[in-house]
Amino acid sequence: MRRRGHGRPTASLFVQVLLLVGLSLIIAQAISVFLLFNLPPPVPDFYRFSEIEQALEGSPPELIDRRPLQHRIVDSRPSDDSPGETMIWARDELADDLGVPHEDIVVAKTYRLPISDRRVFRIVRDRMERAGGEGAEDRFLVAPFEIAMKRPDGRWSVVRPEPGFGLNVWQQRVLLWFLLSSLVMAPIAYLFAKRLSQPFRLFAEAAERLGRDPDAPPLAIRGSAEISVAVKAFNGMQERLRRYVQDRTAMVGAIAHDLRTPLTRLRFRIESAPEDQRAKMAADIDQMEAMVAATLGFVRDATRPGKRTRLELASLVESVCDEMAETGAAIEVQDAQKVVVFGDPVALRRLVTNLAENAIKFGGSARARVFTEDRSAIVEIADEGPGIPEAEIERVFEPFYRREPSRSRETGGIGLGLAVVRSIARAHGGDVVMANRLGGGLTARVILPI
Q1: Which pLDDT value is given to residue 4?
Q2: Does domain 309-449 have CATH number 3.90.1300.10?
Q3: What are the beta bridge partners of residue 406?
Q4: Where are the beta strands (DSSP E) in 35-192?
Q5: Does the first or last residue of the chain, that is N or C, have fewer Cβ atoms within 10 Å of its Cβ?
Q6: Where are the domains of the chain?
Q7: Residues in a beta bridge with 163
Q8: Do 108 and 78 contact (CB within 8 A), yes or no?
Q9: Which pTM was predicted?
């Protein structure tokens, strides 16, 4: 047994499943015992000898409360099922009543009674007495059966009860009881199933939260003993992943920071270089310093995530576009559906700004949209530029990747803008994709969970 955080013991998953199965078996057996001792036995259709004899002679009686007797004539003698002593007695009685030789009566088919219970015979006799009054005939056969009698022309008269279709009254009553018992068990089974499945739902939520925020708090330890062990392992894995990411990020930041010292020394040393080479060397050093600065900024943002809160995404996009339009950029918001997301306002503003600047830089103008789709918030920023070859659409999200010549030094950019965009989107549980539009232009599509 394990204990919850507030001290109550929690049974293991094995014990809970065993308890559910055991409880179901006990209730099922209790219902069966109740039915056995309280429901009356099924009463099969019974037929007096006089009714069978009348049918063998070709005139089946009209019956209301029982299945009618079928009469047919066949050319060959039906096969004998080797009846027992009781059916031999019935054959002899029928032969004596009909005045035919015993061998001219054939018990073609007999079956065991549906239920062996003396109450059946008492009920049958009571019904016969009520139907026929005092002195009523007490000789009868219980369906199903098949009796044949040889006719004077050599053919055979065969009589049997008409086959029944569907469930009889007793079967319907038993089925109703089982349906009612299933309804009684359904809430109990639901509560057990919900209790057993809840820890797995918490695991799924924790895994999804880990994908959005590696610094999310650890999963609370609760549930069965097996679940508690799994939760501890999950929390340990989350902590190791967090330390791994932090260590690698810190290492990249340290390398970028340390590169500044040799770059500074190189800048002083190129003063003695020939004039025709000095400008090119200075440009290379400037580019390297810009890459170092961008890398340090990227690492700083990754290691210091901002506080997340509920924010209205359309207002954020409109604010970014308005600020850029005031500086003369050709950008507009065509459609801005109000949608609330949970995220870091500073990071999301940087995401929208990077995409908008990228669209204006390489497309000349930009159009923004905000809407919802499949329970997700969508931000689309489209431009009128030349687009990107399909083979390079994913590569543009790689750090320091720049397409030539459109993304050369002259146009500016280190190659971290789109990498930052995807990093922010995925840190919020979403993603960003690029797609070329028919007729020209590129659309950046950001998907964020609502």
Answers
A1: 42
A2: no
A3: none
A4: 46-48, 69-74, 105-110, 140-142, 145-150, 156-161
A5: N
A6: 46-167, 309-449
A7: none
A8: yes
A9: 0.48
